[in-house]
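Encode chain A's predicted structure.
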Amino acid sequence: MSAIEAKLAELGLALPAVVPPLAAYQPAVRSGVYVYTSGQLPMVDGKLPVTGKVGAEVTAQEAKELARVCALNALAAVKSVAGDLDRIARVVKVVGFVASAPDFTGQPGVINGASELLGEVLGDKGVHARSAVGVAVLPLDAPVEVEVQVELEP
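Encoded structure for chain A:
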């Protein structure tokens, strides 16, 4: 077990299986020392636990928890191409999409769920640049989607 997976266990979390693609893409690809994940939905055991728009059917707090799930799924995707999460040198960028009700403006707080999880698990290596974007709809009516870019140790 890697040190990062041990840290996840210490937090009461486990690395899930990689979420299979919903269309024509790979969950993650490696280019040189970088790994780019596709957008990760908050799938748990192959299903979305909640659907709908944040600020309407889904609360901001629920969406923040779902963003944590997205980040955990992203780490699984990274491991699938990197082989070992301990090879992560740093998280470079996180992009989060929030399916938002028209008057919802709390996208940064929602995506904090992903950012905070990466910080808890990776410490200083989890500090990253980020975008948090409100959108009209996401695949499968998911409330949130997160993609992650990491740099690996050479």
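The mean pLDDT is 97.
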